[in-house]
């Protein structure tokens, strides 16, 4: 089998994570990684066997040897990069969200469609073994028609306020994963959204115009209803649970913990806290999504998470934000 | 200590349950029970030692020997009975809801206040050991300020459609318990409500103008937000869970099961279903609420669930119903 | 139906417990309770409606009105009382163990057999809903042939050393319940025993010749093997678990806890300790065994725990003690 | 840092597993793998980058470039290979057991001691995150002095009878891991053993002189007592649990499952079976033990599992087998 040659655009935390996962696959080679600031990247890149480090992403896009790219740069650069890469015929893996503008996202989808390249959006949680098991079970009718979906999604601590400023806000930065998860598990489109938001964790988050606590209800095209609750700070760890309830039963999954050990003493029974960090919690899911992307390219299989999934999640995020601001339910056409 | 003499109005399922619980207490005597149809009641009443069975509730209210009454008749008779009993100086335990009309409920509260009698509303779940433990822990600051409350409340199967017709609908008949629970656990008043409703379980329920599936969001005076999900039919049993999440942690409780037994076979690991019926699930809570009422009378202790709690839950139910009908959030003044 | 009239011999903790459970049944009357020291008993007896308090157990045995007796006096008085009562035709419920001497126990069994009276031994745990569920499932073949049984049985704290002196030691006083449970769950007789004992909890227990920690292996007639571990002190509460493992799977049960509440904070996830005391843990089982005894008398049903069950458990206890002392496995013929 | 060059002796299942784990570490190179039958190995070896495949292990031992070897050949070849490799100054990782003969094992230990090389025994379970957490907690005094240790260790299905014939039997082939685990968690030597064995799973196992079900009690030098139960066939999966109980509490760990998903339907609540296979269950532990061995070589750190640990486990296995045959407890001097 021909090796797939890959370029990575953006060598921040998530770009490096993808690189380290990719190199563990056979028949794949990372030729180039690009970043505006390459000083801190060079040594690391050499250690894991990346051949070139460049500052301009165009060097990757114009490289005819490169088959596929991973777009891990800031969100506001995604659209430009993707459109340019699609024209050059590269397959594209893009971190979520595709963009902060629905129109821009639609242009991106148009471009990749025309180019006929593979385009996967980085909703890594779809590849988590717990959520995947629930997705498949719902699809197989284990619980009949879905009636209610509930998603709990809470970070262990808020990101720096500087980051929040440019993040697009809680709905675009954090809840967008949950909006995708809701569609993925219920297997139907969201047609209406209502959001409650609050600033209860840290006043500094409110001062930059964002919220840190939210409850969002969802109405689906198939008649199901759902709710997502988000918090930027769960002191006990990264809290990620879902439940899908239907006419024939219910599917739930509990959080992953570092061990199954229980301590029983005179003070009661104790378990260690949840896995704390998303990179730790979704370690295997990140590997699985990368594998699925490469497998799709090498064996021409359908993608499990494509451009339209990115668009739909953004439409929900936009409606949720508007609902919170205007204090009323918002339809998604 | 002087014996407390009790009269019970209404000998349906819940009236008989209270009677059977009351007779197990020392220093209490049930003198009379009233019901429109006494034929089926007489034998049972004799067995458990109730002295008289009558058809007219006035015989109870006018009996000077009787100190306290339990109002277990249909909701539309509550107000009249309570007001008459209060005038006669009886202490009153009333099943929820107090009435189907906010104004009527307010008149009832006025009457019991003027009469200076004890008036307890039958929110039995407050006395469940799991919810009580969470209530106390929130109050003691174990999780800091509450940010989010989540209540799951699903019946094992819908009541007969005939019952639903006269029930006041899902919000007044079923969710009203959850509205009280939300106030009880968060320890703050609800100021706004938004409800999604759906008819997914049985079309016959929709045909009589009711819903069988609902998600209701709550905004509290103290800034917390919350959500309740209801279904009339959870095939796996009576599903009753709560979570209170705050700045310093989270409190959850799982469903009670008949046993702790796990079966592991080649097909996986299996547990028996949840306790199926509310009388079974809340058996101890029903005893505890009755004990608390009698204890309050005999030792002049404050009530743990009083008239205003009934009123507030009804205000939320009314707003929830309106929100569902009008498709917008409704304020509670 | 004719009322059953009952006499209770011994008004210590367990005698009073049985009395309080018995009076909650219809068609049953406690006429008399006897105790050497009746001063502290009289008031309590009046409150719950016992008619007479006497010092001599003979007054109960010779009372022709009395149908059945509960033997709750010290173990060394059991045999004499039971034999005398059987001659008078009383049905007998006896607390475990029947006696400290195998020969005496055999005489007792002979006497009740000749008299043709009902004779139930107080192995209350057989009536616990968890163990009963496992017993029935094994019997129904859910796990195929049993291969291994494991019982964990640990008290929350040791009894006073004074009590231990007269208790017959860990095997006769504490593990005897587990020996019965093993037979009950595997449904086969124990043919060989090996015991390890240790004095790790409190040297004072060793000084009076007893142990506080033990592991006992069991070989059953049907080929299964088993193990029981005992401790006099589990600081986290009363630890009572069983597992039966067979050719087609495994059955386990977890401890009962006072609530299902979990506390998640920055320190991890926490549950309250186990139910602490055997009277609390087996509250329902005590009621159920009493009900079963009375039901057996009133409706002439077979007993669920009879004289031979007491004898077999004592045979195992005797062998376990000998095995510990001699450091070798001991056969039970 | 200088790269460590490694040779692997034996390309069976476990040899290939170690190879695949080793190549994922930086600064390590597998130069050679040896196996009597190299046909099936060559392609695989090339794919993962092993340079040479040879039939004679001496080619590895005599290669001056090679720093360390992994002994993954059949147990009866271990001693000869280790002694030869030690003389040549190679660091050695050896799969368990070191040999089937205590005297041979002692010679091996003497040889590696004289040669001054690192010698790690493959008790991979010490590196499992659950057992490691318990080991550390016991060491840190979380539960005070250990009183009782319980280990459940059951395979999902028996190996082929052909394998069993040459395996050394249940105690040497299977329970030896549990003997090591007991020493590791209690942190004290075993001084006496008593074993019950049975042939309940498959008569064919009995026909070749082995057992498939066992309970083994342990007495430790520090006064603690313990028990291990083994079965060759747990139909619900690979069952691996431990409990350490002490004066201040208890530590337990549950089995790992593939997901945390629970299915609730009209039939009850269901979880998927346990991880089925030891390679799946201990995947991370195998990686961790390999990392620890290489780390010990490269940074001259102490081993976490050394030659004496192999010897002690074999002494217990020998005593357990003798105890089972002779039906009496056996001392380990």
From TrEMBL, chains A, B, C, D:
Would you indicate the residue range of the signal peptide? none
Domain Gfo/Idh/MocA-like oxidoreductase N-terminal: start-end pairs: 6-123
Give the highest taxon in the source lineage: Bacteria
Annotated GO molecular function terms are: nucleotide binding; oxidoreductase activity
Q: Which keywords does UniProt give here?
A: Oxidoreductase
What InterPro entries does this protein's entry cite?
A: Gfo/Idh/MocA-like_OxRdtase_C (IPR004104), Gfo/Idh/MocA-like_OxRdtase_N (IPR000683), Myo_inos_IolG (IPR030827), NAD(P)-bd_dom_sf (IPR036291)
TM ranges are none
Gene3D superfamilies, sorted: Dihydrodipicolinate Reductase, domain 2 (3.30.360.10), NAD(P)-binding Rossmann-like Domain (3.40.50.720)
Q: Where is the Gfo/Idh/MocA-like oxidoreductase C-terminal domain?
A: 136-331
- Name a Pfam family for this protein: GFO_IDH_MocA_C
Query: So what family is this one in?
Result: Belongs to the Gfo/Idh/MocA family.
Protein name in UniProt: Myo-inositol 2-dehydrogenase
- What species does this protein belong to? Pseudogracilibacillus auburnensis
């Amino acid at each position: 089998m021909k090796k797939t040659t890959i370029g990575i655009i953006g060598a921040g935390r998530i770009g490096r994570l993808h690189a380290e996962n990719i190199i563990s696959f056979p028949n794949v080679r990372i030729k180039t990684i690009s970043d505006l600031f390459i000083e801190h990247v060079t040594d690391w890149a050499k250690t894991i066997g990346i051949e070139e480090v460049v500052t301009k992403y165009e060097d990757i896009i114009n490289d005819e040897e490169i088959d596929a790219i991973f777009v891990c740069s800031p969100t506001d650069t995604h659209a430009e990069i993707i459109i340019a890469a699609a024209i050059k015929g590269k397959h594209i893996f893009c971190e979520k969200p595709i963009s902060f503008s629905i129109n821009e996202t639609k242009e991106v989808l148009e471009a990749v469609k025309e180019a006929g390249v593979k385009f996967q959006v980085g909703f890594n949680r779809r590849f988590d073994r717990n959520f995947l098991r629930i997705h498949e079970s719902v699809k197989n009718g284990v619980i009949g028609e879905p009636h209610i979906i509930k998603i709990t999604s809470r970070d262990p601590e808020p990101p720096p306020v500087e980051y929040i400023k440019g993040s697009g806000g809680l709905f675009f930065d954090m809840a967008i994963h949950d909006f995708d998860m809701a569609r993925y598990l219920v297997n139907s489109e969201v047609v209406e959204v209502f959001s409650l938001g609050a600033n209860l964790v840290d006043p500094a988050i409110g001062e930059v115009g964002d919220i840190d606590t939210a409850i969002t209800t969802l109405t689906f095209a198939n008649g199901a209803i759902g709710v997502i609750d988000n918090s930027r700070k769960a002191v006990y760890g990264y809290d990620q649970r879902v439940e899908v309830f239907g006419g024939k039963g219910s599917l739930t999954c509990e959080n992953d913990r570092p061990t199954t050990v229980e301590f029983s003493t005179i003070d009661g029974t104790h378990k260690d806290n949840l896995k704390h960090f998303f990179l730790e919690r979704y370690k295997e899911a990140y590997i699985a999504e990368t594998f699925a992307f490469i497998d799709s390219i090498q064996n021409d299989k359908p993608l499990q998470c494509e451009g339209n999934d990115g668009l739909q999640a953004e439409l929900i995020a936009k409606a949720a934000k508007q609902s919170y601001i205007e204090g009323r339910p918002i339809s998604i056409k």
